[in-house]
Design a protein that fits this description.
The complex is a heterodimer. Helix content of chain A is 40%, strand content 15%. In chain A, strand 5 and strand 6 form a beta hairpin. Chain A contains 14 helices and 17 strands. Chain A folds into 3 domains: 54 residues, no CATH class; 116 residues, Aspartate Aminotransferase, domain 1 (Alpha-Beta Complex); 261 residues, Type I PLP-dependent aspartate aminotransferase-like (Major domain) (Aspartate Aminotransferase, domain 2, 3-Layer(aba) Sandwich). Chain A is an alpha/beta fold. Chain B is of the alpha/beta class. In chain B, the strands form 3 sheets. In chain B, strands 1-7-6-5-4-2-3 form a 7-stranded mixed sheet, sandwiched between helices. In chain B, strands 10-12-11 form a 3-stranded antiparallel sheet. A two-stranded antiparallel ribbon of chain B has the order 8-9. In chain B, helix 4 runs antiparallel to helix 12, helix 6 packs parallel to helix 12 and helix 12 packs across helix 15. The chains are: A alpha/beta, B alpha/beta. The interface between A and B is large, with 210 and 210 residues.
Chain lengths: 467, 525
């Protein structure tokens, strides 16, 4: 018996007698052949009482430098937004935390209605008519959009902007190698997808095109131009235009549904989910009506009960693996219901005006931070495109190692200045990606400017770079 | 009319807080307050101008917003999100939550889902800022605690599965399956082989065949023998040089541990294919048997099942995989490594022939924290106790159902004993009493129980897949067996009661056909 089981000696005697066996081991001996039974205890440490597990996990937590311990400008796909207290309270409720997927709708109305509300919020945000109830997270959502395109038009080529998150590009590549599609990358020019290379790469064999908004370097792309160029170059509407969007700037950015985007996906972490070292968060997946029956994952729909009262169910399930099996639109089963709930609660908490206010605030602060940093000796803006929450600079410190060293110097001074682009872009080895959230005030930005300025100066002096 | 032993049913009414039978309504006359409370979405509440969020003040010199972001790139009208105050928000979602059935409130024997207790310690430790506010791109030197936790979890999962090389990256079981089949593809390609087919038993979870197609293979079904295991003759006939992999669950979805597993592994390996273990049913065998020892090459874990990550109404999950030596070079990058000085690092190129990434960052770390805490709490002995008790509880529940005479109407589909779950067939019940498995399930709701999995596995007519888990008490199992018996007795008297059930739930039986016919998938505004 452990702290989570309840079979006393008296229970055990009665239970074995009811079953008609003499021991628990007999249940295993009679069903598992001897040659595959484990005849020794598992080689794991002994169990610990709750307070000791707590202490151990606390010790591990203390060996991490979290966003609580430094002023962080790290982004690159996940962002340190404030998570309101109502989310902790609601997600901690047993009724939301502990049920399974709503297979019995009569006792899952809370969950199903929350999915319906979430779908409404994502539809509003993206300007696309249909949303599913969540997929795993951002990059695999991009790859799932690729699978949708593969099933929809069967064409073997995907054209991908290098402004798409490196993890999305890698994940798409992993999936596409399985289901059979070739990937052609289009370079960036002046910080955005090179329009000429984009149009030149797309042809009649192109099944889907992928870009990110804002792109990985923080630049706002001309999404409408990318979408229409794709349709023109592909010679028709069958090419699926996929945009990976950051939902926060959608308070002020033109929605993908108004730009000709067919499938909008993205990382939902910024909507009320913690950083959690990368997950769990959720991926959102919205599309035009044309792709409704090819969407992956759960979708909640409205209906009525036997007494004519409004209710909600999982619907269009003939797309899904448990019904369609090898012909399903995706293999996804468990998704991210709790994280998507955080998403709709967060959007409700922000509200109609709040999302706009947040977007405008980030726009102003991001602009300010870029201006200030560009004024630092040895630092220059990597591009001049509009930026709304993140931007890229170049550090004149002699290369990738110099950037790494500058980041370390800044972190030693309590500021995490951002993400070194050289990890993913050979051509941007001296790049640094700097992200803002509403938690980074002007005072924090000013501190970044001072600390980064000092670090760059120190690095240049150590490396003998002359101003 | 029925042969059920009714004497026991009234012996101890109200066990464990469940309704004694005579209190369970048999009609819907007089709706409950919750039923009368018509569902209204958050988009139908509130009023223009209300808000819960107060934006930080603009503290930088204001620039012309139109210049920073030209009108052509801007949204013309705000997204029509709700406009509510914080109290309205809280009341709405708390009331909504009350329209859910949940594991903390009642028994949830959903087969193949392992609805075991979720210790609240896990929520507490996962919420610590050092874990929850750790950025995934924090440098390895400054995320040593997280990397150590992941390293330790990998080792523990390797030991439980008997397969030493672990990647925590996949986001759920189905994602782990995709990883496994893509690994298989890479394995064969590396040997210059093009194999086109993957075998799955007809009892498989739907995710298996769906995964096979996604990974670019053709599904070939393998039959089931009269004992509920793989039909060896059929397997031999279909296992050829075109076969890349056999995906198997063991114990399988029928609750049967396949006694021929060593022979199955030999057949598969002899044609050069890999053997994949769907870990959905791992809760039956922890500390008792290991997939690696059975000859499996790849296994996925469902941390949200065997390792008690709360299911959240449909996620998050987490689906790490463990593999044998020969599959190791193809695992997903980045790889967590331990340096000679004892420090930990993330290596982007740790596996030389990696299939690549399957998602962003390092996986669902928040789930790792919880499952790691669980393993720390239970240790080797506790994990073994979990599986032993899960199997004991399942067999006890089966015995109690037999005691009540339920077996005549709901016979065990295969075998005499079971592992951690069992499949009953409702076919005789449907024939003799006129109620379907669906009716039984809906009537169970009125008794305060979440029904078992219904109509899966597909192989069994009117299937009912029951998995009680190890964390339920004997009293709860007794109460559930009595409720089933009572529903069958009641159906013998009046099948309409079950046919029209439920009566007490927030809504009654819902029209799923109408929902699919004319989909309404968002609130019209």
């Amino acid at each position: 018996m452990s702290q989570y089981t309840a079979v006393t000696d008296a229970d055990l005697a009665e239970m074995l007698s009811a079953i008609g066996v003499s021991s628990v081991q007999e249940l295993f001996d009679r069903q598992i052949p001897a040659d595959v039974r484990l005849s020794r205890p598992l080689d794991l440490p002994a169990g610990l009482p709750e307070q000791e597990v707590y202490a151990h996990l606390r010790e591990l937590a203390a060996n991490n430098v979290s966003a609580e311990d430094e002023i962080t400008f790290l982004g690159a796909g996940m962002y340190d937004h404030y998570v309101p207290a109502v989310i902790d309270m609601l997600l901690g409720r047993s009724e939301f935390l502990t049920p399974y997927t709503p297979y019995q709708p009569e006792v899952s109305q809370g969950n199903l209605q929350a999915m319906f509300e979430y779908q409404t919020a994502i539809s509003e945000l993206t300007g696309l008519p249909v949303s599913n109830a969540s997929v795993y997270e951002g990059p695999s959502a991009v790859a799932s959009a690729g699978y949708l395109a593969r099933l929809a038009n069967g064409k073997p080529k995907f054209v991908v902007s290098r402004g798409l998150h490196p993890h999305s590009r890698e994940t798409l590549q992993t999936y596409a190698h399985g289901f059979g599609a070739e990937i052609v990358e289009v370079p960036l020019k002046d910080g955005v997808t090179d329009p000429d290379a984009w149009a030149a790469a797309i042809d009649g064999e192109t099944g889907a095109v992928f870009f990110q908004q804002p792109n990985f370097l923080g630049a706002v792309e001309d999404a409408a131009a990318l979408a229409s160029a794709a349709k023109d170059a592909a010679g028709g509407d069958s090419v699926v235009v996929v945009g990976q969007y950051d939902p926060i700037p959608l308070g002020i950015l033109k929605p993908p549904g108004e730009c000709g985007v067919d499938v909008c996906v993205g990382e939902g972490q910024t909507l009320g989910n913690r950083l959690d070292f990368g997950g769990p968060s959720f991926g959102f997946f919205a599309a035009t009506e044309a792709y409704l029956r090819r969407m992956p994952g759960r979708i909640a729909g409205e209906t009525v009960d036997a007494d004519g009262r409004r209710g909600f169910v999982l619907t269009l399930q003939t797309r899904e693996q448990h019904i369609r099996r090898e012909k399903a639109t995706s293999n996804i089963c468990t998704a991210q219901a709790l994280n998507a709930l955080a998403g709709v609660v967060y959007l409700t908490w922000l509200g109609k005006q709040g999302l706009v206010d947040l977007g405008e605030l980030l726009l102003q602060r991001t602009h300010y931070a870029r201006e200030q940093l560009a004024g630092v000796a040895g630092v220059s803006a990597l591009h001049d495109q509009p930026v709304v929450r993140e931007f890229a600079v170049t550090l004149d410190v002699g290369g990738v190692d110099g950037v790494a060293s500058v980041i370390r110097r800044c972190q030693d001074a309590g500021v995490n200045p951002g993400y070194a682009l050289g990890r993913d872009y050979d051509e941007l080895g001296t790049g640094l990606l700097v992200a803002l959230t509403e938690q980074r005030s002007k005072a924090d930005i000013d501190q970044l400017v001072a600390v980064l300025g000092a670090a760059v100066a120190a690095e240049r002096s150590a490396a003998g770079v002359t101003a | 009319m029925t042969t059920f032993n009714d004497n026991r049913l009234h012996a101890d009414p109200g066990i464990d807080g469940h309704h004694p039978h005579h209190d369970v309504p048999i009609s819907s006359e007089g709706a409950t307050p919750m039923q009368r409370d018509r569902a209204t979405t958050i988009f139908e509440k509130g009023a223009a101008g209300r808000r819960a969020f107060v934006a930080p003040k603009l503290d930088v010199p204001e620039a012309d917003g139109g210049e920073l972001l030209p009108a052509a790139l801007r949204r013309a009208a705000p997204a029509r999100l709700p406009e509510v105050s914080e109290p309205e928000l809280v009341r709405h979602y708390v009331k909504l939550s009350r329209r859910n059935f949940d594991l903390d409130t009642g028994f949830y024997p959903l087969g193949s889902c392992t609805m075991k207790h979720n210790p609240r310690l896990h929520e507490r430790v996962a919420a610590m800022a050092g874990h929850s506010r750790l950025h995934p791109l924090q440098s390895p030197e400054r995320s040593q605690g997280a990397l150590e936790l992941m390293y330790n979890l990998e080792r523990a999962l390797g030991e439980v599965s008997g397969l030493p090389h672990v990647s925590l990256q996949p986001s759920a079981g189905s994602h782990g399956e995709l990883a496994g089949v893509l690994l298989t593809r890479a394995f064969h390609e590396d040997r210059g082989q093009t194999r086109t087919k993957v075998l799955t038993p007809d009892t498989a979870h739907g995710t298996n065949p769906a995964t096979v197609t996604m990974a670019g293979f053709e599904v070939v079904k393998v039959g089931t023998n009269p004992d509920g295991g793989v039909d060896l003759d059929d397997l031999r006939a279909k296992a050829d040089e075109d076969v890349a992999c056999l995906m198997l669950t063991n114990p399988n979805t029928l609750g049967v541990f396949d006694p021929n597993i060593t022979e199955i592994a030999k057949i598969v390996h002899d044609v050069g294919a890999t053997l994949y273990y769907d870990g959905a049913n791992l809760n039956a065998i922890m500390g008792k048997a290991r997939p690696g020892d059975m000859g499996f090459d790849i296994v996925h874990f469902n941390l949200h099942k065997s390792f008690t990550q709360p299911h959240g109404g449909g996620g998050p999950g987490s689906g790490p995989i463990a593999v044998s030596d020969r599959m190791k070079p193809y695992l997903m990058n980045p790889r967590i490594v331990r340096r000679d000085d004892g420090s930990f690092d993330l290596d982007d190129h740790g596996y030389e022939k990696s299939i690549g990434r399957l998602r962003g960052f390092q996986g669902n770390y928040g789930c790792f924290v919880r499952s790691y805490a669980y393993i720390c709490s239970l240790g080797a002995e506790g994990l073994t106790d979990a599986s032993e008790t899960a199997v004991l509880n399942a067999n006890y529940l089966l015995a109690k159902l037999r005691e009540h005479g339920v077996a005549d109407r709901l016979p065990l589909a295969f075998g005499e004993l079971c592992m951690h779950e069992f499949v009953l067939s409702g076919a005789p019940m449907k024939k003799d009493l006129g109620i379907k498995t669906l009716d039984l399930a809906k009537r169970l709701l009125d008794h305060g129980y979440h029904p078992p999995t219904v109509y899966f596995p597909l192989l069994v007519d009117e299937a009912l897949l029951v998995e009680p888990t190890e964390t339920e008490t004997r009293e709860t199992l007794d109460g559930f067996a009595e409720a089933i018996a009572k529903i069958l007795t009641e159906a013998g008297e009046d099948p309409q009661i079950a046919q029209n059930a439920p009566y007490t739930t927030p809504v009654r039986r819902l029209d799923e056909a109408a929902a699919a016919k004319k989909p309404v998938l968002r609130q019209p505004l």
